[in-house]
């Protein structure tokens, strides 16, 4: 009887640990140049791929800003609820194969997401060929 209880508890701990390793949820974006908090991005799964949208703007310079420098169907769209991460797929310990949009300049970059060892920091890398820029986002606990 004690063995079954022990195994049940162990299995529950393993499931909780696996869930903590998940990148899904809300993340606070940090500007890599100023160190200031900018927004909250919710990362979610849809049709087997991972996406991210801006769900809150922290200290916006103007009310309800638009993505004026974006192209295509995102041009002129409100930045709040704008999907900025698209089509990511898990490959071992990283998510890649998708894109990330920088609403400030309207540019779209290839993207790679990786959860850091502390499980509360997400490495977000946008790149073109050999040039890349990395930000570290912090998990927002519910």
TrEMBL record:
Residues 25-139 form the DUF2147 domain. Keywords: Signal. InterPro entries: DUF2147. Pfam families: DUF2147. Residues 1-20 form the signal peptide. Gene3D superfamilies: 2.40.128.520. The keyword Signal applies. PANTHER family: BLL5882 PROTEIN (PTHR36919:SF3), BLR1215 PROTEIN (PTHR36919). This is DUF2147 domain-containing protein.
